[in-house]
Amino acid sequence: MNAPSTRERIASYLRVAGLESLQGREADVERAVRDLVEAMGEKVAIADPESLYRYRVPMLTEDGSCSIVDELAPVPYDLTAILGGRSEQTTRRLALLERLVERAQETTGADWVGVYQRRVNPAGIDVMVKVSYVGLPTRAEFPLTREFAERSTNSTVGLTGRATVLDDVSKHVEAGGGFYVCDTGVQSEACVPILDDARQVTGLVDAEAKPKGFFGAERLVVIAALSMVAAAVLP
């Protein structure tokens, strides 16, 4: 793909995803995309495929609406069922996503970075399921319902396809905004949609940090770039 068409694609994504604050920074996003693609080009060792499919998650309250932040569930979450089984291709894609989120975390310095994919879980519920992340254990599935979106940025972005960037979580919550707490120290969040060629939401990238005002333009371009690259890697 030549440079002009790449810039046009980036500009279109930023516009559709509600990232107007990055308009005029298409070249920065392009450089971040190139960096992530190069990171995927490095040899990705799959020493323990099991670790790509299973991860620890917090216990949930009885009604399943909230995480119990400091208490982990005794059984790890397993992606196998929601991804339709395990295969060499799926394992490879999960390994590439792991490298991508690691690189985005290295570049931005965020405390937490994760990629979610839109899937229907075994119970028949449309959810955003976490397929790769770096950071503390967090909830695996976010239901894509209006009710859940009232307290979840992930569900909101999954339903609207429009990015949310929070510079002060405390003020956002005080003003009645929804925020799902998995780490009580988080004060900044950047949650952006992953879109397919038809501009439909197929997933999202979520990044969190403890300092307020963390996701300025320089870091946000990396999160936007991750969402564009991840679109081609989702299992």
Provide the descriptors you would attach to this structure in a database record.
Beta-Lactamase; 37% helix; 235 residues; 10 strands; alpha+beta; two-stranded antiparallel sheet; 6-stranded antiparallel β-sheet; 8 helices; globular
Structure characterization notes:
This protein is of the alpha+beta class. It has a single domain (3-230), classed as GAF domain (Beta-Lactamase), CATH 3.30.450.40. It is 37% helix and 23% strand. It is built from eight helices and ten strands. The chain has helices at residues 3-16, 26-41, 49-53, 88-108, 146-149, 153-160, 169-174, 217-230, and strands at residues 54-55, 58-60, 67-72, 77-78, 112-120, 126-134, 141-143, 164-166, 188-195, 201-209. The strands form three sheets. It has a six-stranded antiparallel β-sheet, sandwiched between helices. The chain has a two-stranded antiparallel sheet with strand order 1-4. The chain has a two-stranded antiparallel ribbon with strand order 2-3. β2 (58-60) and β3 form a beta hairpin. α1 (3-16) crosses α2 (26-41), α2 (26-41) packs across α8 and α4 (88-108) packs antiparallel against α8 (217-230). The model has no long low-confidence stretch (mean pLDDT 89).
